[in-house]
Design a protein that fits this description.
Number of helices: 3
Strand content: under 5%
Radius of gyration: 34 Å
Number of strands: 0
Shape: rod-shaped
Order of helices and strands: HHH
Distance between the termini: 65 Å
Length: about 100
């Protein structure tokens, strides 16, 4: 609640009138406008940061996908050349539950 230092000698009506005058003043309008501008600017900055981070994450994800696919492809080529003498790599192999799940698709 806005306090205007209304003393006992001022009536409630006069205090209410002073509040109404302030709320309709250019000063109050300027304060509220400055707050709204700051919030809008912050939101815009946040949206820009979010887009930039999403772009970086998408780029990094594509790089990682290419690296994993390249690694799996290289391992598959070597496995084709060497057969079962090449040891299994857990991260490049399917587990029994994944194999049964894949057969359902």
């Amino acid at each position: 609640m806005i306090q205007f230092g209304c003393s006992v000698s001022l009536t409630r009506t006069m205090c209410a009138a002073l509040r109404a005058i302030y709320l309709c003043s250019a000063e109050f309008q300027h304060h509220v406008s400055a707050l709204a501008e700051a919030f809008t600017e912050m939101l815009s900055d946040l949206d820009s940061e979010q887009r930039a981070m999403l772009k970086l994450w998408k780029k990094r994800r594509k790089q990682l996908d290419r690296a994993v696919i390249g690694t799996a492809s290289l391992y598959g080529d070597l496995q084709g050349l060497m057969g079962h003498t090449l040891p299994d790599i857990r991260h490049l192999s399917l587990t029994p539950s994944e194999i049964s799940h894949e057969s359902l698709l």
